[in-house]
Specification:
With 505 residues, this protein is of the alpha/beta class. The chain folds into two domains: 314 residues, Alpha-Beta Barrel (TIM Barrel), CATH 3.20.20; 74 residues, no CATH class. The protein has 16 helices and 15 strands. The chain has a nine-stranded parallel beta sheet with strand order 5-4-3-2-1-13-12-9-6. A two-stranded antiparallel ribbon has the order 7-8. Helix 3 links the parallel strand 1 and strand 2. Helix 6 packs across helix 8 and helix 8 runs parallel beside helix 9.
């Protein structure tokens, strides 16, 4: 009986194992979305020049702009073109309309332009529910036209979904699609399965974080390193999740499994973080956008996969190439871009170890500073530790020295934190200080106060095994290293007597 049961289990697993065989052998890629709601939109030739300079080899267009497709010809850049939502009804109702669309927008450009996918609409099930009944018809009609042209194995057909079609997304093992969508979702997934296509999913941890009312930690949304006790654990599978992105992708996998589809890979068609917001969106910032996208790129290109499918590629398109100043809505809606319309980076990414995509790599231009909203006493304790057991040279903070002004705990702590961060080679976890520090790409140097990360002192430190302070450490120090040498030394002595050198992180 046992051997029969083992055989049955193996037979049940075989389709699942085969389903992801091609994904496991494929390298994950990072692409970009190219929106055009820009008042001074660069020409298609300029766009392609930027793509080449940044070594971006995968793009998604929100339409099938003829000039853009011509500019992409002979570049080998892999292109996903889209059927806009306003054309969905016509294509979904008429096979001939779909065939004409393929003839005009696909056949006239391949093989010179390397079109590899067609996205039918965008988030149709959540933004155009009345058009939902025609979505699968549109996909089938477009696919039939590709079959007739013998292009169906080269060009896949799918449709991007909002992650909000997934209900109860955590724990991922309990996630399921909105059941009211089953009449569309089941034939849609069958189409993807039958044609060897993939499930297109838009994943925005920024919105998950904003809507969570504090339940989701910012570090968890930004891929920042978490201590094991801060990781989210799926109680059903015991899988550990260190970031929102993986949890949402796995929620999609489990949702498909709930409908008995276990062999459709996920491609993330949109993900990113806004670099600017209004007063109600303080976490839409340059630093957070940089942190999220830099970490996302590394995560994807390392072929990490997800806890449910480790090592299985989750290729992702960053939203987006340019800031779109003409987009309606809040300030953040206009500020998702990696570049402004002149091709100048909105922020300088730190991407060492991520391969060659996005060439504006300046990992050495990162700094560690105190968080503005951190508890002042905790910042003071961390400052005392850095200048004591942390073995940071804090003499620039003494009165009449270059970094004495501004004479505040936060300013002095920022210098000390950055000195420690670079002393430790900018290793993961060395800019934390019990949660009161953060990594930034904005140089905090001012006047004659040059921070270690600016290069003036970079590389002059020797490595130390001392690690930054933990929440278990205590300090009775109240020094700001701001009065005189005697005050500094007194504080240092007190700090050494009262602070533990146990791990702070």
């Amino acid at each position: 009986m046992k051997s029969s049961m083992d055989l049955l289990v193996l037979l049940l697993l075989i389709p699942h194992l085969l389903a992801f065989a091609f994904s496991a052998n494929e390298e994950a890629f990072v692409g970009v979305n190219i929106g055009t709601d820009v008042s001074d939109m660069p020409s298609p030739v300029q766009v392609v020049a930027l793509l080449k300079a940044q070594q971006i080899r995968h793009v998604r267009l929100f339409d099938a702009d003829q000039a853009m497709l011509l500019a992409l010809a002979h570049t080998e850049i892999r292109v996903t073109v889209s059927v806009p939502n306003d054309q969905l009804l016509g294509i979904g109702q008429s096979n001939s309309t779909a065939a004409n669309w393929v003839s005009r927008n696909i056949l006239s450009h391949v093989p010179a332009t390397n079109i590899t996918a067609i996205a039918i609409g965008s988030e149709v099930l959540t933004t155009l529910p009345n058009a939902a009944p025609l979505l699968v018809s549109a996909m089938k009609f477009i696919h039939s036209a590709l079959v007739a042209a013998n292009l169906d194995t080269k060009i896949k057909v799918s449709t991007p979904h909002s992650s909000f079609i997934i209900l109860d997304s955590f724990p991922p093992s309990q996630a399921f699609f909105n059941r009211s969508l089953d009449p569309v979702m089941v034939p849609l997934l069958k189409f993807l399965q039958d044609t060897g296509s993939y499930f297109m999913l838009n994943v925005y941890p920024y919105y998950d974080y904003m809507k969570s009312n504090g339940v989701i930690a910012l570090d968890y949304a930004l891929f920042r390193p978490l201590p094991p006790n801060k990781e989210a654990v799926d109680s059903n599978t015991l899988l550990h999740y260190t970031n929102v992105f993986d949890a949402v992708v796995d929620a999609a996998y489990f949702s498909m499994s709930y409908l008995n589809f276990t062999n459709i890979p996920v491609v993330v068609t949109e993900s990113g973080w806004p670099s600017k917001g209004d007063s109600t969106e303080p976490d839409a910032s340059l630093d957070n956008a940089n942190t999220y996208n830099s970490n996302l790129i590394r995560h994807v290109l390392n072929n990490t996969g997800t806890p449910k499918h480790p090592g299985i590629a989750v290729s992702t398109y960053i939203y987006e190439l340019y800031n779109e100043d003409l987009r309606p809505g809040s300030i953040s809606e206009k500020n998702w871009g990696l570049f402004d319309s002149n091709g100048v980076p909105v922020y300088i990414m730190h991407l060492t170890g991520s391969g060659t995509v996005l060439a504006n790599d300046t990992t050495n231009q990162t700094y560690c500073v105190a968080k503005e909203n951190a508890d002042k006493k905790m910042v003071q304790a961390a400052l005392d530790w850095a200048c004591g057991p942390g073995k940071v040279d804090c003499t620039p903070l003494l009165q009449e020295n270059p970094c004495y002004d501004p004479n505040t705990v936060f300013a002095h702590a920022s210098y000390a934190f950055d000195a420690y961060y670079h002393k430790m080679g900018m290793a993961d976890g060395t800019c934390n200080f019990n949660g009161v520090a953060k990594v930034t790409t904005t140089d905090p140097s001012h006047s004659s106060c040059i921070y270690p990360g600016s290069g003036g002192r970079n590389g002059t430190f020797t490595n130390s095994s001392t690690v930054a302070p933990s929440s278990d450490s205590a300090s009775g120090c109240h020094s700001q290293y701001s009065h005189d040498v005697h005050t500094f030394l007194s504080s240092l002595i007190v700090g050494l007597l009262t602070l533990s050198t146990a791990a702070f992180l």
